[in-house]
Amino acid sequence: MSPDLEVELARLRLRNPAILASGILGSSYGLMRRVEEAGAGAITTKTITREPREGYLNPVFVDLEFGYLNAMGLPNPGITAFKMELRRAAENIRIPVIVSIGGRDESEFIEVAEQALDAGCNAIELNLSCPHVGGYGLEIGSDIRLACNIIRSIKSISSRPVFAKISVYQARPDIVSRYIGSGADGVTAINTIRAAAISVESMTPILSNIFGGLSGPCIRPIAVAAVYEIRRELPDVPIIGVGGVDGWRAALELILAGANAVGVGSAIARKDLEIFREIIEGLRGFLASRGFKSIKELVGYAQRL
Q1: What is the per-residue pLDDT across 104-135, written as a single tens digit (0 to 9) for each?
Q2: Residues with Cβ within 8 Å of residue 86, at least 6 apart in sequence
Q3: I need a labelling partner for 156 at 20 to 30 A (CA). Which of 95, 246, 290, 301 fits?
Q4: Is the peptide bond before 240 cis (omega within 30 degrees of 0)?
């Protein structure tokens, strides 16, 4: 009998633990359908805001060989236009669709969340940690009291799961505990890390925004440490581990650290959506070779000393 990859994540049932991370695809029904067909266990959309955002001018993405640096600027069609895509997804896509939402203040978060819930999303992810867009993300999440108020407000209107996407700076058990106490059903850890790159040839910053978010294999040990500590101190908190998942071994490392599921992001730029099949087959093969019946057995396994 083939090992079971199904996981439960704050009342969501996923066919496998590989989730499309926010910020990569997921702003149209067609792209979401492609992700489902590629084998993903769930989809997280791009961060959606009240008004449309065009994002930053090029260059917005740099392959550093050891990782990636991006400053997209949260481009998205805005919640009014996105609701049409989300309704189609809710009617036709069979895996959970998690809508990432962003805002400059509590009222914007609430308005976007209300419309996303009305359109049929399965869960909400609050972007409290984008490192390169002024007034959004990390600037909101750095105010823990404000972040907690936003979580409480969203939970007051949502019976569906709400995840707080946190930065490495917020990935402390005391902060996560406050988020959970405010009503969050789980956390997504971690977002990209604020960084910059300068061209030696032109002697100028490479990104148009100067600062961007560092992702890829170079941040995986940081993500593993964050997930490990949260799981150790808060054993019952659902965790989506994100950071440097470029194959099944990387996914398994985060699961062993304590992640219930893993987000796949920037690696898609190199491997396309085939990475989901690679992760699924690799995890299933590992479980079979070691005699495990379910991926659930390995969540936090590295802490069982």
Answers
A1: 999 999 999 999 999 999 999 999 999 899 89
A2: 29, 45, 97, 99, 116, 119, 120, 121
A3: 95
A4: no
Cα separation of 76 and 150, whole Å? 21
Are the beta carbons of 213 and 192 closer than 8 angstroms? yes
Q: Which two tokens stand for residue 138?
A: 């990390």
Q: What is the pLDDT of residue 137?
A: 87
Residue 219: domain span: 7-299
Question: Do the domain assignments include residue 1?
Answer: no
DSSP-H helix ranges across the chain: 29-38, 79-92, 106-118, 138-141, 144-157, 173-181, 220-233, 248-257, 268-271, 274-290
Q: How many CB atoms lie within 10 A of CB 34?
A: 17
pLDDT-based confidence at 87, cuts 50/70/90? very high
Q: Decide: 170 and 230 in contact? Cβ < 8 Å.
A: no
Whether residue 28 contacts residue 81, with contact meaning beta carbons closer than 8 Å, is answered with: no
Q: Is residue 304 part of a domain?
A: no
Q: Which of 121, 130, 148, 218 is the catalytic position? A: 130
Look at residue 305 and tell me if it is in a domain.
Answer: no
Measured in degrees and rounded to the nearest 5, phi and psi for residue 96 equal -60, 140
Mean pLDDT of the chain: 96
| Number of domains observed in the structure of the chain | 1
173 token code pair: 């058990």
pLDDT tens digits, 170-206? 999 999 999 999 999 999 999 999 999 999 999 999 9
In this model, does residue 276 exceed pLDDT 80?
A: yes
Q: 224 in the Ramachandran plot: left (φ > 0), alpha (ψ -120 to 50) or beta? A: alpha
Asked if residue 224 is part of any domain, the answer here is yes
Return the SS3 of 97. Answer: strand
Say which residue the tokens 């593993």 belong to: 224
Contact 29, 6 (CB under 8 A): no
pLDDT band at 26 (very low <50, low <70, confident <90, very high): confident
Signed CA dihedral, 135, 139, 141, 146: sign only: negative
CATH number, domain containing residue 20: 3.20.20.70
